[in-house]
Amino acid sequence: RRVFLRAALAAGAAWAIADLAGVEAALAAAGQQATSGRPQFEALTRPQAETLDAMAGRLIPAVDGRPGAREAGAVYFIDRALATFNAAQRGLYVEGVGD
Fold it and tell me: Max Cα separation, the chain?
C-alpha cells in the first residue's frame, strides 16, 4: 500500500510539473476571458459552460466579500484546460454537465 501511495504521489508530481506551462497559459486565458465583454469557449458549448459555471459557483461560493469560483472565472480556466493540456477529460465533463 505504501509503495502504491508513493508511486501515485510521484506520478501526480510529474504530471503537475509537466503541465505547468499549460496551466499557466490556461490561467492567463481565463483572466482574459473573464474580463472580456463576450467570452468565447473552446471546448464547451455555451449551455455546458453555463451549467459548469453554476456548479462551480455552488461548490466554491463567494463568502464574506471573497470571490468564489464564478467570480474568479473558473469556468474559463476549465474550458481552456479541456481544450489544451486536459483534453482527455473533456468527455467526462461533457457527460457530467449534459447539453
Answer: 50
